[in-house]
Design brief:
By secondary structure, this protein is α/β, with parallel strands linked by helices. The protein has 2 domains: 2-57, Beta-Lactamase (2-Layer Sandwich), CATH 3.30.450; 65-220, P-loop containing nucleotide triphosphate hydrolases (Rossmann fold, 3-Layer(aba) Sandwich). It is built from 7 helices and 11 strands. It has helices at residues 2-9, 72-82, 99-113, 146-153, 169-180, 194-203, 208-214; strands at 21-25, 35-45, 48-57, 87-92, 119-123, 134-137, 160-163, 184-189, 215-220, 233-235, 240-242. The radius of gyration is 20 Å and the shape is globular. The two termini are 34 Å apart. 26% of the residues are buried. Residues 85-208 form the AAA+ ATPase domain. InterPro entries: AAA+_ATPase (IPR003593), P-loop_NTPase (IPR027417), T2SS/T4SS_dom (IPR001482). GO terms for molecular function: ATP binding; ATP hydrolysis activity. Pfam families: T2SSE.
Length: 249
């Protein structure tokens, strides 16, 4: 059974076939030069379980905040927010738009420019290992849930907290309260626009005055397609570059 083997590799509960589960698969040594991480997602259907493995490839250039493609104004604003000691920064956008990559780049910037700051992350699952950061794996089907872990971590005297995703009203309330009490919170939220993220918080029961006092910025990002540098050609009629396809792309 392929899915059963994947669940073993991902450290999931093999005897539970009726709940969705997520985990990480340890990358084998012969592939570590190319594949950085493998994320496993298993979901039950009426025909059996459905499994998806997402491969994260090594992109050393994306570790730097300035190399993500943001404009100078946005990049400068993110660095200003990273230097603060309180507030909530929310990243929004569709799945696969690079929100986790941006959060990881911000954390690396904080560690590089402000050494000694206590940085802790809560993730489900842990997507990227970052040296110098205390990373915590959430178990939504056990006792280590986002609200439980977040309440306990606030007593660990953290200075910077990264929450993988705000999924429910209880987590949102604790995040907002932490941002008001001297912690810098970074997190993601499913929303199609910055204004939609604020409305989502209000729908979760957060008071408007708490939103305005704690949320310092909302970033909504998308991925843009780039033409292959090795095979793109200049179209003389339109004066635009076009792609023709090659082995590299």
């Amino acid at each position: 059974n392929v899915i059963a083997r994947l669940k073993v590799l991902g450290g999931l509960l093999t005897y539970r076939n009726d709940i969705p589960q997520e985990g990480r698969i340890q990358v084998q040594s012969e592939f570590q030069s190319k594949v950085l991480d493998e994320r496993l997602s298993v979901f039950p259907t009426i025909h059996g379980q459905r499994a998806v493995v997402r491969l994260f490839f090594e992109e050393t250039g994306l570790n730097n905040l300035g190399a993500l493609g943001f404009s100078d104004y946005i990049c400068s604003a993110l660095k200003t927010i990273a230097a603060q000691t309180r507030g909530v920064l929310l990243l929004t956008g569709p799945a696969g738009s690079g929100k986790s990559t941006t959060l990881a780049a911000i954390l690396r910037y904080i560690l590089r420019c402000f050494p000694g700051r206590c940085v802790i992350t809560l993730e489900d699952p842990v997507e990227r290992h970052i040296d110098g950061v205390s990373q915590v794996q959430i178990n939504p089907h056990g006792e280590m849930t986002f609200p439980v872990a977040l309440r306990s971590l606030l007593r660990q005297d953290p200075e910077v907290l990264m929450i993988g995703e705000i999924r429910d009203a209880e987590t949102a309330r604790i995040v907002i309260e932490a941002g008001l009490t001297g912690h810098l919170l970074l997190s993601t939220l499913h929303s199609g626009s910055p204004a939609g993220a604020l409305l989502r918080l209000l729908e979760m029961g957060i008071e408007p005055y708490q939103v305005t006092s704690s949320v310092c910025a909302v970033v909504n990002q998308r991925l843009l397609r780039k033409l292959c540098e090795k095979c793109k050609l200049l179209d003389k009629d339109s004066n635009n570059y076009i792609t023709q396809g090659c082995d590299d792309c």
